[in-house]
Amino acid sequence: MSAAETRAGWAGVDVSLVRGLLAAQFPAWAGLPLTPVDSAGTVNAMFRLGPDMAVRLPRVPGAARDIEKEILWLPRLAPRLPVPIPVPLGRGEPGDDWPWPWSVHSWLDGDNPEPGRGPAEPLALARDLAGFVTALRRIDPEGAPDAYRCESLAARDDATRTVIRELSGVVDTEAVTAAWDAALRAPAWDGPPVWIHSDLQPGNVLLSGGRLSGVIDFGCTGLGEPAVDLIAAWYLLPAEARGTFRSAVDADDATWARARGWALSIALPELRFLRESNPRMAAIARDVVGEILADRATTG
Question: Mean of the per-residue pLDDT values for the chain?
């Protein structure tokens, strides 16, 4: 690993590094105020640049590869969506102290949902999220890339069962296994793939006044099955708003069952692997698992 790749770790990404990259590649922006953005995200570091821009630096090679996709597709998706998404403003190149491409985007105002604190307008937020999800899936898929989560739910079976075993004593493994088995029994998606965001978690949505005001981080976006984006029901909504969301996205029983499975298959590894390195995300994941088990206890 090079010195630049080592610096790409959490401790090495700081204001001085970003300002140096800006001075070398975007000198017109180098003197603007630059502030780190607190985030529970694991693959990008973000800095607010001036009043209306954001700098994103990937922390891992996979996130670096996503930059080209975002620069190509975000301008095409933005006009077709009901809430703002970031607009690419510049593509940065690797530098002496930085190993990968990076990017400058438009800044979006709003706050991430707070774990453990319900939204001020849960039913309205449910409708907002449904509007975003359905608008995205209606966009022409011609030429679109595969989403990060484009495989079938069944393809995640071995990895998910392994994680369940490793979480013995942390979660109710019997109940979680039953919930996972129920999701796998649902008929598989047999329609064409559609556009999905693929990672509708608290760190990737913005709220203002309890309503959806923006969606960020499209590194996982692309074509997949519609149930993937329905993880928002458990990651972003309280129980009383899920029915509104489900109705608005017109999810049948099979799709809703697979959505539970997708949420489980994402949350369980987050809980397993991030408990020490990212306790905020691990806490969110624990809540998601708890909400899914509570749903099953009341609705089957």
Answer: 93
Give the confidence band of 4 by pLDDT, cuts at 50, 70, 90.
low
Using DSSP, state whether 254 is helix, strand or coil.
helix
CB environment 250-287: b (16+ within 10 A), e (fewer): ebeebbbbbbbbbbbbbbbbbbbbbbeebeebbbbbbb
At 224, give phi and psi (nearest 5°).
-165, -165
Q: What would the pLDDT profile of 23-64 be if each residue is shown by its tens digit?
A: 999 999 999 999 999 877 678 999 999 999 999 999 888 889
Do the Cβ atoms of 187 and 292 come closer than 8 Å?
no
Both tokens assigned to 69: 């996709």
* CA distances (Å), origin 147, targets 59, 99, 165, 195, 229: 20, 25, 28, 8, 11
pTM: 0.93
- What is the structure's pLDDT at 105? 97
How far does CA 102 lie from the centroid of its chain?
18
Helix (H) or strand (E) holding 43: none
For residues 164-200, b (16+ Cβ closer than 10 Å) or e, as one string? beebeebbeeeebbebbeebbebeebeeebbbbbbbb
Residue 28: phi and psi, rounded to 5, are -65, -20
**What are the φ/ψ torsions at residue 58 (nearest 5 degrees)?**
-70, 145
297: CB partners within 8 A, 6+ apart: none
Nearest in space to 255 (alpha carbons), one of 266, 246, 264, 244: 246
Strand (E) or helix (H) holding 130:
helix 122-137
Distances (CA, A) of 21 to 17, 101, 103, 104, 196: 6, 11, 11, 11, 32
Structure-block tokens of residue 88:
């690419």
Beta strands in 23-161 (DSSP E): 34-36, 44-49, 53-58, 88-92, 102-106
Do 100 and 94 contact (CB within 8 A), yes or no? yes
